[in-house]
């Protein structure tokens, strides 16, 4: 864990919401789905898949934005509307933090990319692994294991 130089701090654009990461990510990724494209107003979203016990909101409160469904909960700053993190019902051990929320995200590289079937033409992330959709749950274990061996650290 020391080679990750934790903890990390981060926050939304206006600073009303601040977060802290105390455990290393299980995976870094880019998502090319049209939903992420629309929510970011960009070609993809960048994500740190974190153990839930290694993540906390240290300042402010978030509101649910994006999809208002029963399974996926996109947390945003109520003031500036920045998309901060996502929680998924049934995956209580996991928080998907938007990588650019970190105060220092310059080290970030997506190890995997998902929904490449919806990727915009000419967009490249440099991810090591690409998937046309989202793998089944058992498909994540090999990715997580491979990422643990990946040399990129902040």
Write a short abstract of this structure.
With 154 residues, this protein is mainly beta. The chain is built from two helices and eleven strands.
Write a structural description:
The protein is mainly beta and 154 residues long. It has helices at residues 34-40, 137-148, and strands at residues 8-11, 18-21, 27-31, 45-51, 55-59, 62-68, 72-77, 83-88, 94-98, 112-114, 129-130. An 8-stranded mixed β-sheet has the order 6-7-8-9-4-3-10-11. It has a 3-stranded antiparallel β-sheet with strand order 1-2-5, with no helix packed on it. The mean pLDDT is 93.
Key words describing this protein structure:
eight-stranded mixed beta sheet, about 150 residues, globular, mainly beta, three-stranded antiparallel beta sheet
How many helices in DSSP terms?
2
Q: What is the helix content?
A: 10-25%
- Strands in their spatial order, largest beta sheet: 6-7-8-9-4-3-10-11
What structural class should be given to the helix and strand makeup? mainly beta
> What fraction of residues sit in β-strands?
35-45%
